[in-house]
Amino acid sequence: MENNIVLVGFSGAGKSTLGKQTAPLLGLRFVDLDNYIEQKLQYKVPQLFSQFGELVFRKSEYEALEELLENDGQLIAVGGGAPCYGQAMQLILKRSFSVYIKMPEDELVQRLASSKKPRPLTKDLSPEELKQYVHERLEKRAPFYEQADMTIAGDGITPEVLAEAIKAKIQ
Ligand code: S3P
């Protein structure tokens, strides 16, 4: 239960890509929470949003996280909203060592604008609306991310640097 790492941070911060490459360096199994939910419920995240609404997605997200954190030996990348609803951040803090992958706001906007991952909350936004969305949401979500056990600048970070930084903190 103690032996889990959770990566938190805004959408587009690179949690999944970085997490996947960092997990083996720490001898951990990589789990992407969005993928885990999709496999468990047999629905894609955008479909969950469109057919059942965001609230149902958030509930499923929390339940999936709770379920995953019953196991250990995992590096889990959670969706940008996951730590910001209900008691999720408390759960993350209690059952894992958490890392906030912090990215500059402009970088997030650029990365989201060119990302291929289907994201229901941003897919229909104009460039101007996307900028506004990131600005407003980040302000609301940062206080949750900042509770993480460790914060690291995500801009240009390599899996090796992240793995070493985590090891230095947890050993
Ligand atoms: C969301 C972020 C997504 C995904 C869902 C909702 C959010 O994950 O969980 O579309 O609320 O910011 P990423 O952080 O991987 O984009």
Order of helices and strands: EHEHHHEHEHHEH
Under the CATH scheme, the architecture is: 3-Layer(aba) Sandwich
User: Structural class, please?
Assistant: alpha/beta
Helix content: 40-55%
Within the CATH hierarchy, at the fold level, what is the topology?
Answer: Rossmann fold
Summarize the structure in words.
With 171 residues, the chain is an alpha/beta fold. The protein has a single domain, classed as Rossmann fold, CATH 3.40.50.300. It contains 8 helices and 5 strands, in the order βαβαααβαβααβα. The protein has helices spanning 15-22, 33-41, 45-52, 54-68, 88-95, 105-114, 127-145, 159-170, and strands at residues 4-8, 29-32, 74-77, 97-102, 150-153. The chain starts with a strand and ends with a helix. The mean pLDDT is 96.
Summarize the structure.
With 171 residues, this protein is of the alpha/beta class. 52% of the residues lie in helices and 13% in strands. It binds shikimate-3-phosphate.
